[in-house]
Design a protein that fits this description.
- By secondary structure, the chain is α+β, with helices and mostly antiparallel strands.
- It contains eleven helices and five strands, in the order H-H-H-H-H-H-H-H-H-E-H-E-E-H-E-E.
- The chain has a five-stranded mixed β-sheet with strand order 1-2-3-5-4.
- A hairpin with a 2-residue loop joins strand 4 and strand 5.
- The longest helix is centred in the middle third of the chain and has 76 residues.
Length: about 375
């Protein structure tokens, strides 16, 4: 008996479920359920120690508290405040761990450090109030040995995840930029080929028309040959202008500020210095500068996250000099950066094809990339 093909409706539904299962709302729902499950384990003890709550009412309170974790991406301070309230009212320390992790994960190092300090200060104030359970430490030393590691560990794990997300996002942007750059370079190369081939033919046409015009001097066709030569020259000029406009569309020095802002958003501040003379560079050289600086900032963010980067672009006589310097990281990144290992090679190839040199060294506790190529200004 022939089997019927599966209906498209269940297949579509399964795909939708699979996509939702890995979506951010699904991850937030899992975190909320997990936090609720851990807090529910304390319900029997709360029913015995806190006369204001029974088992069912404590479960309802924990449900409401865990539900605030659904806001941990858009408003992570909400579950944090709720967690502080639960800690003071029911002496519940589970929720605060999820809240601190969420702040570190979605708001970064500064927010996590501030939240950890607020958590420790608030917990110390609770400790000095009468009625704090002995199981959370009957001395300040015991209390700190319990409370502080909880906050620091949760916030630290969140910050590490935040860094990992930044690197992953940067990798995606880098790949997209590489694709756009490849397309742009291909267009420029096609434009150059068209310019070389068609321009040569137009030049020959103009020269040939001028020769025929000279030979036909005094005859009826002289003016026709002169107009043909003028038309060929105009077409050649239009071709040149088209190629220049196409090259001008590539990113140049004007795009360096955007690169610096993007790097600062990723946690690596950039000190950008561009000599006034460099603004007169040709569009092709400006594109090379943009590409080298972009690749260097990407590498600095991956291998030395959070450290400042200095970018200096100068013109010395007939040479254009690009220097990108960043301190070496004292400790390796929490996660090994994803890298194809071809960025430095592609930079070197671009600089070499323009008659320049590229050098990458470690000196005086810093990683320095120096590119030197003809400026074309003299």
């Amino acid at each position: 008996m022939e089997r019927m093909p599966p209906s498209p409706a269940p297949v579509t539904l399964r795909r939708c479920v699979d996509r939702w299962a890995v979506s951010p709302p699904a991850m937030d729902a899992v975190a909320a359920l997990f936090a609720f499950g851990l807090m529910v384990l304390d319900v029997p003890g709360l029913a015995r120690e806190d006369n204001s709550l029974t088992g069912p009412t404590a479960a309802l309170v924990f449900t409401a508290g865990a539900a605030t974790l659904l806001l941990r991406r858009r408003a992570p301070w909400v579950p944090f405040v709720v967690a502080l309230g639960l800690m003071g009212w029911l002496h519940e320390l589970t929720m605060i761990q999820f809240a601190l992790y969420s702040l570190g994960r979605f708001r970064g190092r500064r927010a996590a450090a501030l939240a950890t300090a607020l958590y420790t200060t608030t917990a110390y104030a609770y400790f000095n109030l009468p009625g704090w359970p002995d199981r959370h430490g009957d001395t300040l030393s015991d209390f700190l040995s319990l409370v502080v590691p909880i906050g620091v560990l949760a916030a630290g794990v969140g910050i590490a995840a935040y860094r990992h997300d930044l690197v992953a996002a940067l990798e995606v942007q880098h790949r997209e930029a590489a694709v756009r750059q490849a397309v742009q370079e291909e267009r420029i190369q096609v434009g150059r080929d068209v310019h070389d081939l068609v321009g040569r033919e137009l030049t020959l046409l103009a020269v040939r028309a001028e020769v025929l015009s000279v030979r036909a001097r005094g005859e009826a066709h002289q003016q026709d040959f002169e107009e043909l030569a003028d038309t060929a020259r105009r077409a050649h000029r239009m071709l040149n202008e088209t190629i220049v406009r196409r090259t001008d569309g590539a990113p140049g020095l004007d795009g360096l500020a955007a690169l610096a802002e993007e790097s600062e958003r990723m946690g690596s501040p950039v000190d950008l210095e561009v000599a006034e003379e460099a603004k007169a560079l040709s569009p092709l050289r400006q594109t090379a500068v943009h590409r080298v600086v972009r690749e260097c900032l990407t590498n600095a963010t991956k291998h030395a996250p959070g450290l400042p980067v200095t970018v200096t672009i100068t013109v010395d006589d007939a040479d254009l000099r690009i220097e990108v310097r960043n301190p070496l990281a004292t400790t390796p990144p929490a996660h090994a950066p994803v890298s194809t290992g071809t960025g430095l090679v592609s930079m070197a190839e671009r600089v070499t094809t323009m008659g320049g040199t590229l050098d990458a060294t470690r000196a005086d506790g810093a990683y320095v990339v120096t590119a030197t190529l003809p400026s074309g200004l003299r």
